[in-house]
Write a structure and sequence with these properties.
heterodimer; A: alpha+beta; 5-stranded antiparallel β-sheet; 5 helices; B: alpha+beta; 6 strands; 35% strand; globular
């Protein structure tokens, strides 16, 4: 990965700009806000303004795009808060500034960049202020799998996550129906032996630490569930409140017939409301990549 | 929101507004409107790098004005004082917005708080919050529009 170039204290400033009547009319159409004082001088004047008032959300959008334009094509905002301190009038000169207040490592995602941005009027008063958190993805190699980054992202060896589910009658009924099993389901009934798979937080996307693998610049040729094992102390039952503790235990690659295979192995410990063990499962998922066709290897992207 | 405003506002106990807290809109099915997105980007031509308008859409692109979005969903605009103004917006993106599929939006007046200005005027702030979920129920993120209801100096 290329090293991040951002650091706290860095600033950016725009050239002066003037929102035009054309700007606010287009913004009204795009945002569906046709409040008249944004583009009708008579209505604006009647409300005590010197002229049509620029949409606050237009100013927010300008700041947002300026932040992304500065941080780079792949950056995206995860948090953005903006407040409008003063109305700005169409045609008046404005400028904007951005400042980075912090940079933090985000395993699997890149880096989180936090900062503030503001729009300033010609009298140097701040009319709009914003706070943001952006994610700047790393530049990844297209001829090697990011094994170390993946191990860090899934917290290999440590608890990756813990989720609690309640097993309702409808859950077990639907599961039994999918297996073609008939009969009534009642509170306290045993769930089928394969029901552990329905309580897997990774399958349910309640724990989702390695989704960046789907965005690698390496062609993916396949993937899916590789292995499932389960050991029961007792069956799951309707009415159980189950806490699932997930740990990734192995991350490795090996050569396969369809390319390079990337395995992630996880263990789920299932406990009841009193903390007593119910079961333990061990599952592995595989993704296969074609490293031979990456540009760095002399191939072409599909 | 800025730390100044966060610490100054307190939950309102005014019965004129507390009855609105919790009001929920009907569920709406929404999707990315690329035409609206393009028109919005044109409004900033010459001011921003237009390449940023072609990045994967976020909730700010689907819901550029959270207050308007929530009002259009059927929620009432609280008007108990003299003047109502837009008090700002917040967006939280937790997962990518579906590009080729529609997704759900549910709006709610999630809170009303209040403070007094430096000149002693009462200001109430209603939080119009919209939650966006995929059709599988996965949370995409939230958008909040803040409506300020203020006393005008007599």
């Amino acid at each position: 990965m290329t090293e991040l170039t951002w650091q706290a204290g860095q600033t950016w400033a725009s050239d002066p700009f003037r929102p035009s009547l054309s700007s606010v009319v287009r913004w009204a159409a795009g945002s569906d806000d046709f409040t008249a004082f944004h583009f009708d001088p008579a209505v604006a004047t009647e409300l005590g303004h010197a002229g049509p008032v620029v949409h606050g959300t237009w100013k927010a959008s300008v700041l947002r795009h300026q932040i992304l334009g500065w941080l780079g094509d792949d950056a995206y905002l995860t948090e953005f808060d903006v407040e409008y301190r003063r109305a700005d009038i169409v045609g008046e000169e404005l400028r904007s500034t951005i400042e980075i207040s912090g940079v933090a490592d985000a395993p699997g995602l890149g880096h989180h960049v936090t900062g503030s941005a503001q729009i300033v009027a010609s009298d140097d008063s701040v009319t709009t202020s914003a706070r943001f958190v952006a994610t700047v993805p790393p530049t990844r190699s297209d001829n090697a799998l990011p094994i170390d980054e993946l191990k860090k992202a899934v917290r290999l060896g440590d608890i990756a996550g813990q989720v609690t589910y309640r097993i309702d009658v409808s859950d077990v009924r639907r599961f039994r129906e999918s297996l073609g099993m008939e009969g009534e389901v009642n509170e306290g009934d045993d769930a089928p032996p394969t029901f552990f798979a329905a309580l897997d937080p990774v399958e349910r996307r309640d724990i989702n630490l390695d989704s960046f693998l789907l965005d690698l610049p390496i062609p993916m040729t396949g993937g899916g569930n590789a292995t499932n094992e389960v050991e029961y102390v007792r069956p799951f039952r309707v009415g159980d409140v189950v806490t699932v503790t997930t740990r990734y235990t192995e991350v490795y690659e090996k050569k396969g017939s369809r390319g390079t295979l990337l395995f992630r192995v996880r263990v789920n410990d299932f406990t009841d409301a009193q903390g007593a063990p119910i079961a333990q499962s061990r599952c592995s998922h595989v993704l296969s990549f074609d490293l031979s066709s990456s540009p760095a290897a002399g191939g072409q992207q599909r | 929101m800025s730390s100044r405003l966060q610490s100054d506002f307190i939950a309102s106990a005014d019965e004129r507004v507390t009855t609105f807290v919790g009001v929920v809109s009907p569920v709406r099915l929404v999707r990315v409107n690329e035409h609206a997105r393009a028109v919005s980007a044109e409004s900033m031509q010459g001011i921003i790098d237009l390449r940023t308008a072609h990045t994967p859409p976020r909730l700010e692109d689907v819901c550029p004005d959270p207050l308007v979005f929530a009002i259009e969903s059927g929620l009432p605009r609280i008007r108990v004082l003299d003047r109502q103004i837009d008090g700002g917006s917040s967006w939280r993106n937790l997962r990518p917005v579906p590009i080729d599929d529609s997704f759900y939006a549910v709006s709610q007046i999630s809170a009303v708080d209040e403070r007094h200005t430096a000149t002693g005027r009462l200001m109430m702030r209603a939080h119009y919050e919209t939650r966006f979920t995929t059709r599988r129920g996965e949370l995409i993120g939230t958008a909040i529009g803040y409506s300020l209801d203020v006393e005008v100096a007599s």
